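Let us practice reading a record.
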Amino acid sequence: MSTPILDFFNRISNEYDDLISRSVPRYREMFWAMLYYLPPDFKPANVLELGCGTGNLTKILAERWPNATFSVVDISREMLDKTAEKLPNANLVPIQSDFEQLELSANQYDLVISSIAMHHIRDAAKEKLIHKLYQWLTPGGLFVLGDQVHGANERIYQADVTFYEAFAQENGASLEDVMQWRQHREEMDHYATLGDLSRWMADAGLKDIDVLWRYCFWAVLQAQKPKT
C-alpha cells in the first residue's frame, strides 16, 4: 500500500512529535477538551482510536484507563510502531488501514476517538466513516473528534491560515516547516465545516452533539450513540 498520505507520514514519523508541538497551537489543550467533558464515571473497556500517529493521545488514554484495550488505527506502520514503543505495557491492538477500507464489528467500542486525522479523507468519506463508527459503538458509547475544520466561509478560513502560519513561526517553526505543512494542507487535507460534521453525526443517529472547544483550525466535538 502506497499513497501520498502514507508516504508523507512514513517520512516524518521520526520528527512528528517535535514538528507537531511547534505547529499546532494549544495541542495539549485540545487533548484536555477531548477528555474533560466525558462523564466522570466513564470507564471504557474497549477504545478505538482512529489515526493514532505516534501515540501522543493514546498514552494519555492508557494512563487514564490502564485496563482498557486500545485498538489503534493508522495508515502508517511506522506510526503504529512508534505508538507501540511509547506504550510498551498498554493493551494495544494495532490496525494498519486507511479509514475508507476499515471494517470492524458492530457494538464493539465504548469510545471511538480521533485526533487530527479525519481531515485526511474527503467529505463523502468522512460522512460514510461517521455512519460506520456509529455501528461500531456500543449502545451509549461516545464519539470524540478533535480535528482541523473549515470556517463557515472563505474569509474565516483564510483568517485561520494567516493566524496559524504566523503562530508557527513565532513558536519556533522554520519557514520550511510552514511551507511543508501548507503544501500538505493544500494537497492532502480536506477540512469540513462544523455544521457539516454535526449534520453527518445527527444523520448517522448520534445524539447530544456538541462543539466543546475551538482554536484556529482545531475543534473538538462530542456525540453519543443512544443507549437503546
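A brief commentary: The longest strand covers residues 137-150.
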